[in-house]
Amino acid sequence: MVSSSADQTLAVQVVDSMERMSGRHPGCRRSSARGAVFRATFTPTGAAAALTTAAHLQTRPVTATVRFSNSEGDPHTPDTAPVTRGMATRFHLQDGSDTDLVALSVPRFVASTPREFLELTEALRPDPGTRRPEPARVHAFVHAHPHLAEAVAQQPPVPASYACTAYWAVHAFIWVDAAGAGQPVRYRWEPEAGRTDLTAAQAATRTAHYLTDELHQRLERAPVAFDLRIQLAGPDDPTHDPSTVWPDHREEITAGRLEITAPADGQDLRDTQAFDPTRVTSGIQISDDPVLAFRAHAYAESHLRRSHERQSR
Ligand code: HEM
């Protein structure tokens, strides 16, 4: 794993590259620029308690904050675009601390290392003439990194609703039990309403912000719920590569149920905050995945830039 200061230097380069890819949108996140924040309650089932001492995975419910987003760095990207969607959850623990779980609507990440991600964002930089990425550059990236072909080829669904798609936290995390034993796990939010995708023809009839509008309307009728599904690694399953998945038949448990009840107050204030996928809590450790450790630096760099831009408005 590279050192923390090398990660910080690389984070500056990566965020610069993300700005070249998506344009610079002052005050906005450099990825997942447009989103909305909601109030929620998370109720653990108790099924995880034998495997981790994490406070929110025992028996008592905790409050949570959830941000759904369109994963593009350009806040004007319409919801009808076939891009990934984000679901970032902050669990507010009884001792006053927080822990985050940041997930996307696809199971694999497009890079195994931060450097590969930098190369991919460079390959996706729009051509100044056409304002679109050059397919030849993306093909060359995949040719140079054949192990990423499947991840780069993933087609994110265009969901009928933020409430009708699954979200994967992608990386492995290590759960630690009361005796100190570790179990690698992967997280997935499974929507209680089921998964429903739109066809291209259906998507063409929706508005640019239909996902946020639909969720607000849905919440006026009833809460929206997700199960927190946990996949338990087998003895030889790798924990370091977010572009790969573990076999489907690995044992799964349901660790809890998230119930989203209403839009959160102060959306503007919440835009000044940042999630951090490495903000774990006692009973959970980050794995040896270099992308996971690196994300803390990239998110901090993006947060720093957008905070300065907001202050100088
Ligand atoms: C090299 C890998 C990655 C880099 C450099 C990266 C970069 C970023 C940056 C700069 C932000 C904006 C942070 C902010 O200003 O607060 C962001 C947000 C986000 N990323 Fe990533 N990301 C990476 C991998 C991932 C992965 C693997 C996932 C999914 C598991 C993911 C899901 C998200 C989501 C959902 C958000 C929005 C969070 C929010 O609502 O505040 N990212 N990412």
Rg, alpha carbons: 19 Å
Q: What's the domain count?
A: 1
- The strand count comes to 10
User: Strand fraction band?
Assistant: 15-25%
Give the oligomeric state: single chain
* CATH superfamily label: Catalase core domain
SSE ordering: HEEEEHHHEEEHHEEHEH
What is the second-level CATH architecture? Answer: Beta Barrel
Which small-molecule ligands are present, each listed once?
A: protoporphyrin IX containing FE
* Topology-level CATH name: Catalase HpII,  Chain A, domain 1
Overall CATH class:
Mainly Beta
Structural class: alpha+beta
Q: What is the typical, i.e. mean, pLDDT?
A: 96
Can you describe what's shown?
By secondary structure, this protein is of the alpha+beta class. The protein has one domain (4-311): Catalase core domain (Catalase HpII,  Chain A, domain 1, Beta Barrel), CATH 2.40.180. Helix content is 27%, strand content 24%. Strands 1, 2, 3, 4, 5, 6, 7, 8, 9 and 10 form a ten-stranded antiparallel beta sheet that branches. Strand 6 (173-176) and strand 7 form a beta hairpin. Helix 1 (4-22) crosses helix 8. The protein is globular. The termini are far apart. The mean pLDDT is 96. Protoporphyrin IX containing FE is lined by residues 14-15, 29-32, 35, 67, 69, 86, 88, 102-104, 109, 111, 114, 117, 169-170, 242, 274-275, 291, 294-295, 298-299, 302-303, 306. Keywords: Heme, Iron, Metal-binding, Oxidoreductase, Peroxidase. Heme binds at residue 299. It holds the Pfam family Catalase. It comes from Streptomyces yokosukanensis. It is an enzyme of class 1 (oxidoreductase).
